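Design request, C-alpha coordinates follow.
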Protein backbone atom coordinates (compact mmCIF):
# COMPACT_ATOMS: atom_id res chain seq x y z
CA UNK A 1 0.00 0.00 0.00
CA UNK A 2 1.16 3.51 -0.75
CA UNK A 3 0.40 6.72 1.05
CA UNK A 4 -0.22 8.58 -2.23
CA UNK A 5 -3.57 10.38 -2.38
CA UNK A 6 -6.22 8.87 -4.58
CA UNK A 7 -6.50 10.47 -8.02
CA UNK A 8 -9.82 12.10 -8.88
CA UNK A 9 -10.92 11.30 -12.41
CA UNK A 10 -13.56 13.49 -14.01
CA UNK A 11 -15.58 12.01 -16.84
CA UNK A 12 -18.60 12.99 -18.88
CA UNK A 13 -20.25 9.58 -18.33
CA UNK A 14 -22.64 10.98 -15.73
CA UNK A 15 -25.34 13.26 -17.15
CA UNK A 16 -25.33 16.77 -15.73
CA UNK A 17 -28.40 17.88 -13.77
CA UNK A 18 -30.24 21.09 -14.49
CA UNK A 19 -29.62 23.61 -11.75
CA UNK A 20 -32.70 25.70 -12.51
CA UNK A 21 -36.12 25.29 -10.96
CA UNK A 22 -37.92 25.27 -14.26
CA UNK A 23 -36.94 24.26 -17.77
CA UNK A 24 -37.77 27.83 -18.90
CA UNK A 25 -35.81 29.70 -16.23
CA UNK A 26 -33.44 32.09 -17.98
CA UNK A 27 -30.87 29.62 -19.32
CA UNK A 28 -28.69 32.25 -20.97
CA UNK A 29 -30.41 35.64 -20.64
CA UNK A 30 -31.27 36.07 -24.30
CA UNK A 31 -34.53 37.57 -25.54
CA UNK A 32 -37.56 35.28 -25.18
CA UNK A 33 -35.94 33.23 -22.38
CA UNK A 34 -38.05 34.74 -19.62
CA UNK A 35 -40.90 37.27 -19.63
CA UNK A 36 -39.37 39.32 -16.79
CA UNK A 37 -36.03 39.79 -18.57
CA UNK A 38 -37.85 40.49 -21.84
CA UNK A 39 -39.76 43.34 -20.18
CA UNK A 40 -37.10 44.72 -17.82
CA UNK A 41 -33.86 44.20 -19.75
CA UNK A 42 -34.95 44.27 -23.38
CA UNK A 43 -37.95 46.63 -23.05
CA UNK A 44 -40.37 44.29 -24.82
CA UNK A 45 -44.11 44.65 -24.36
CA UNK A 46 -45.31 41.20 -23.30
CA UNK A 47 -48.64 41.55 -21.54
CA UNK A 48 -50.59 44.79 -21.18
CA UNK A 49 -49.12 48.27 -20.72
CA UNK A 50 -50.26 48.28 -17.07
CA UNK A 51 -48.79 44.84 -16.26
CA UNK A 52 -45.53 45.60 -18.06
CA UNK A 53 -45.21 48.91 -16.17
CA UNK A 54 -45.85 47.19 -12.83
CA UNK A 55 -43.18 44.58 -13.61
CA UNK A 56 -40.69 47.34 -14.52
CA UNK A 57 -41.53 49.32 -11.36
CA UNK A 58 -41.18 46.33 -9.02
CA UNK A 59 -37.89 45.34 -10.68
CA UNK A 60 -36.56 48.89 -10.35
CA UNK A 61 -37.55 49.18 -6.68
CA UNK A 62 -36.86 45.65 -5.42
CA UNK A 63 -34.87 43.81 -8.11
CA UNK A 64 -35.90 41.35 -10.80
CA UNK A 65 -35.41 38.35 -8.54
CA UNK A 66 -38.58 39.04 -6.52
CA UNK A 67 -40.62 38.71 -9.71
CA UNK A 68 -39.39 35.16 -10.24
CA UNK A 69 -41.78 34.19 -7.43
CA UNK A 70 -44.54 34.60 -10.03
CA UNK A 71 -42.70 32.54 -12.63
CA UNK A 72 -45.42 29.91 -13.07
CA UNK A 73 -48.14 32.54 -13.45
CA UNK A 74 -46.08 34.61 -15.88
CA UNK A 75 -45.39 31.63 -18.13
CA UNK A 76 -49.06 30.56 -17.98
CA UNK A 77 -50.21 34.03 -19.07
CA UNK A 78 -47.51 34.16 -21.75
CA UNK A 79 -48.61 30.76 -23.09
CA UNK A 80 -52.29 31.77 -23.00
CA UNK A 81 -51.54 34.97 -24.92
CA UNK A 82 -49.56 33.00 -27.48
CA UNK A 83 -52.43 30.57 -27.88
CA UNK A 84 -54.93 33.43 -28.22
CA UNK A 85 -52.74 35.08 -30.85
CA UNK A 86 -52.56 31.83 -32.84
CA UNK A 87 -56.33 31.42 -32.67
CA UNK A 88 -56.88 35.03 -33.83
CA UNK A 89 -54.49 34.59 -36.75
CA UNK A 90 -56.27 31.39 -37.74
CA UNK A 91 -59.68 33.11 -37.51
CA UNK A 92 -58.44 36.01 -39.63
CA UNK A 93 -57.19 33.58 -42.27
CA UNK A 94 -60.47 31.66 -42.22
CA UNK A 95 -62.39 34.89 -42.71
CA UNK A 96 -60.32 35.84 -45.72
CA UNK A 97 -57.19 37.71 -44.75
CA UNK A 98 -57.14 41.16 -46.34
CA UNK A 99 -60.75 40.99 -47.44
CA UNK A 100 -62.56 44.32 -47.68
CA UNK A 101 -65.99 42.74 -47.51
CA UNK A 102 -68.35 43.78 -44.71
CA UNK A 103 -68.43 40.87 -42.22
CA UNK A 104 -72.19 41.32 -41.57
Amino acid sequence: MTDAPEKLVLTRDVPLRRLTRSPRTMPNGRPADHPVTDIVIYGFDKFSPRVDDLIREIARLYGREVLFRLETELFAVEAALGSLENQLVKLREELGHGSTQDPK
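Comment from the thread starter after seeing the answer: thanks! The radius of gyration is 23 Å.
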